[in-house]
Amino acid sequence: MRLTSKTGLALAGLLFSANALACDTILPATQVGISAPGKYCLSGNRSLPIEINGPDIELDCRTRTLTNPSTGGGPGGGVGIMVRGGGKVVVRNCRVDGFANGIQADVASGAQLLNNTVLRAQDTPIIVHGNPFQGPPGPPAEPVRIVGNRVIGYDSGQPANWGPALRVHGLPGAVIANNVVAGYRGRGGLELGESPDAQLTGNQFLDFETGHRMIQFMNSPRARVVHNTIMSRQPIGEGLVGAVDATCVENVFINVLPSGFASCSVARYNVEQLPQP
Fold first, then answer.
1. What is the C-alpha to C-alpha distance for residues 216 and 212, in angstroms, rounded to an integer?
2. Which of 15-19, 35-39, 173-177 has the lowest mean pLDDT?
3. How far apart are CA 241 and CA 260, in angstroms?
4. In what order do the strands lie in the sheet with 65-67?
5. Cα(250)–Cα(64) distance, rounded to whole angstroms?
6. Which SS3 state, helix, strand or coil, does residue 33 take?
7. 266 forms bridges with which residues in the sheet?
8. Cα–Cα dist 123/91, whole Å
9. To the nearest 5 percent, what fractions of the chain are helix, strand and coil?
10. Do 119 and 95 form a contact (C-beta atoms < 8 A)?
């Protein structure tokens, strides 16, 4: 009897997991815009961008690639995935290659960018904007989550990027976790503006070729900066900038000067390896 109960629970868990990842609609290769709520997915690579207009939409690319065709697959203009009015919008498992901005999202409560990869972005690979002053006082909004994304800059064959790898503005309480930026040629790793109480956990900024402000806070007090890594073979500039009232714990910063930990209101167990004179 006990074995039967355990088997039933296991099957129920598998069914729940399958439903959570289910796809309502395969997005046609020629369709750009999505406006009706639902779960959409890709069945193949494509050479057109995607525009999400409205809330309650989930896009699962299933590791398929959106490639900018304007220059024969090389770096070019435009936005790979554009999100407008994105309350509870989810974009996951997408590879975006060769657009000026890989993912650009204007989002609201509960939106998520999960496990996406941006390659050869000319301008700013990932941009996420919200409105920090929206709506009357009430229960806390569900935080926006930017988790497990990757920005890859190696062998891009292009000039240094204009913007940071990730630009996040107007998202109080945002969760920014386990993202990796590697080999990027731009002005820093993360720019966080008008986003108090954000949580930065387990992010890695590796092998930057340029960049002078790796994590920059602008009017974003009380951040939790925990278990993040900045590592470069050569000195690349500053670590944390503007970390007002931040809690900074168990971060590892190599070849950044200054590290910026002195501005944190709480700084414990951080590791700094500074450039040799």
1. 10
2. 15-19
3. 6
4. 65-67, 95-97, 117-119, 150-152, 180-182, 204-206, 229-231, 252-254, 271-273
5. 35
6. strand
7. 247
8. 20
9. 10, 40, 55
10. yes
Token pair recorded at residue 165: 């790898």
What is the distance between the alpha carbons of residues 50 and 53, in angstroms, rounded to a whole number?
A: 10
pLDDT tens figures, 77-88: 699 999 998 789
Separation in Å, CA 13 to CA 6, 9, 60, 174, 239: 11, 6, 21, 29, 43
Per residue in 141-185, pLDDT (tens digit) is 799 999 999 999 886 566 667 789 999 999 999 999 999 999 888
Tokens standing for residue 206: 């590796």
Instruction: Give the residue among 41, 143, 18 at the shortest CA–CA distance from 93.
Output: 41
Nearest to 99 by CA among 83, 82, 115, 76: 76
Cβ-proximal residues to 70 (8 Å cutoff; 6+ apart), any chain? 76, 77, 78
**With a threshold of 0.85, does the pTM exceed it?**
yes
Residue 180 tokens read as 């990796």
Burial 83-116 (b: 16+ CB within 10 A, else e): beebbbbbbbbbbbbbbbbbbbbbbbbbbbbbbb
Q: Which of 215, 181, 182, 214 lies closest to 199 in space, CA to CA?
A: 215
